[in-house]
Structure formats: structure tokens, C-alpha cells
Design brief:
FtsX_ECD, 2 domains, about 70% helix, alpha+beta, transmembrane helix, 10 helices, cell cycle, about 10% strand, Alpha-Beta Plaits, ABC3_permease_C
Length: about 300
Amino acid sequence: MIREIFSCIRNFPRHIGTALKNIWRNGVMSISSIFAVTITLIIIGVIGVIAINIQDMTMNVESSLTIHVQMEREATQEEVDATYAALQNLEHVASVTYSDKESELQKLIDGMGEDGEIFAEYQGEDNPLGDAFIIEAEDGQYLETIASQIENMERVNRVNYGGESTTSLVSGLETVRNIGSVFIIGLTVIALFMIANTIKITITSRSTEISIMRMVGASNWYIRIPFMLEGIMIGLIGSIVPILILYYGYNALYNASDGMFISNMLLLRDPYPFVFQFGAFLAILGSSVGLVGSFMSVRKFLKF
């Protein structure tokens, strides 16, 4: 076994040359395998980019959704502190941030621009607002549940989280994300079988070549390695076009949309380093499938 391993290492450059010659010599079948890899990786790339961006959008929306709790103006500091403690103990609450009445009034003034200056005279003891809390939920789906619990607390004047439209948006994005994840997993599995079968047909057509090599005393690994390298090369060559489409296509989409989808709440992932990372994934996926497909296809012609 050790001798066979050293022999494989010593003959590795020769195996690479053999793999390249086999791809060239079996041009039609090699092109067929490369084409299958290319088409499949393009589909996986498109679905993958969509799924990843939807996931980012969902997480971005969920992180920006908060519950604003306004206390009654007459609430004492002890009542505010008690409410703060109660809010922290609620299930599915990630964080609670306190905002005093002066800060709330300043937010109102700043938010209204020049028109907000009329409220400047109410600063101090004349401030009509109460203290407030900004609550972040562990997940957007819990917003409505948390809000309904807070509404029943004493000295709470108003609870605002966006209502049903907010929960519907979060629910819709999560549904699309889950469907996309299932779809891309299923598509990847199908792609594995498609590419592996195409490579299998390529190698099966060369069963005579494998038999001759066995007859002259070539070891199993000496026969197998060139085919495995051939599968890796076919996968890598087949990933070139999908990677180019990903690089130029995603950059064009990002620049055309200014990195946004509909609104600034739904942001596309920055092209860099995303296109390089996803491109590397496609190359690794293509070469891995080529390697596995070749290994499994040659296996049935060899004795163990």
C-alpha cells in the first residue's frame, strides 16, 4: 500500500498529462460533460445568488424592526424602572434600550426638520411626552406577540411596531427564504446526479481502455488517478463560464440598482468579496462533483 502511494506521487505529473490527453482525445464526450457542468452550475449560481440575497434582506429587515414603547407622562421613575425590568424578562426579547422623555422630544424635533422647531418650547417641565423603550426581538415573527403583552402593562401609553404589515413582510420574506433554501438544496442534489452520470457515460465508453491497462499489470490507483484528475479538470473548465456570468452579471445588477431592491431596507449583498467567494464555491462544487463522478464510474471496472 505504501509503495503504491509513493508510486502515485512519483507519477503524478504523468497522470496530469494523461488526463489532459484523455480530455482532448475524447473531445465529444468531454465537451458533453463540460456542457452539463456549465449549465448546471449556471442554474445553481442564479438560484444561489437569489437565495443568499433574500436571506440577507430578511436578516436586515428583522434587525431594523423594533417595538417602540411610550410610557405615560405621569409615570414615576419607580414605575419606569419596574416596566424596564418587566420588559427584559419577556420571552423572545433580545434587548431593551431606555430613552428618556427629553430624548424622545428631541427625536420628534429632528424627525420633523424645520417644522419640528415649534416643539422646542416644550422642552423641560412642559414636555408632553413620556419616557420610552426601544425593544429588539430575537426574531421578527415574535413582534406581534411581544407587543400584545406590553400593551397590557401598567403605565404604558402606546406600543408601535408597524402592525400586521410588518409581520406580513417578515413572514413573506422568511417563506421565500425557506422555499429558496429547499429549492437550491434539491437542485444541487439533482445537479450532482446529472454531472456524475454524464461523466460516468464518458468513462464507460472507455471501458476497453481500462481493461487493457489492467491486462498489462497497471495498479488500480494508477488507472484511477488520471480519470479522477480528468473529472476535476472537467469540473473546473465547466465552472469558468458560470463564474464569469456571476462576476460580470452580479456587478452589473448591483450597479444598475444602486445596491438596492425596491427600497433601502432591501439591500443587495456587496459584490466584493461575495463574487469571489461564490465563484470559488462554484469551482469547488464543479471539481468535487467531477472527482466523485469519475471515482465512482471507474470503480466498477476495478477489482478491490
